[in-house]
Amino acid sequence: MRLLAENISVARGGQIFFSGISFSLSSGEALVVSGPNGVGKSTLLRVLAGLLPDAQGAVTLEGGPYESVAEASHYLGHHNGMKPELTVSENLDFWQKFMINEASAQDHRVLGVSDAVAAVGLEGVAHLPFGYLSAGQKRRIAMARLMTAFRPVWILDEPTAALDLASRHMFADLVEDQLEAGGMVIAATHQPLGFEKAQNLVLMPDEDARFSHEDPFADPEAG
Length: 223
Prior knowledge:
This protein is of the alpha/beta class. It has helices at residues 41-48, 88-99, 102-105, 113-119, 135-145, 165-180, and strands at residues 2-12, 15-26, 30-34, 56-62, 73-76, 153-157, 184-188, 199-202, 210-212. It starts with a strand and ends in an 11-residue tail after the last strand. The model has no long low-confidence stretch (mean pLDDT 86).
């Protein structure tokens, strides 16, 4: 499977967020998008997820049963997508029923709600209203949603926001599992994500986007 982005551009109100962005990802590959606030990282992810249809360019997925990248993707934005008055289990049960399809239901990577909560280390909170959780716990439960219905593409906006160090390691392990299973991950971030291998796209204002296999967060004086 291959995700192909071709000449992606977004302009609104006369302001160009970015233009001419092209890249490809194959099964098992990740892309990390970084850059300063307001440069268009979240906008780019929304374009890839099919949430901004007025963008220029094309985003396609080749070699799979999905008709669009949106159909093949889990999207996790700044908001966790959970109702605070419902319990953790009720929220995840809703998302599983909403997202699951016939192919996904038979996939061995799909976890039940209880197992997904356990996978993020929060077995004791499943009965609690989501609104009772700490910010870090809420983000971990939002990650549990990714495992309740299989999607080959994960599109994640600041996924480790509010997470402590141990939870960041847990997240990195989840991503590695996704990639080893042949999935793809695209993540926008302001901080290191712990991906062992990833393409890096750095967005800068008034400059061309830069692609690199080097970690943009690495200490230049290290080593």
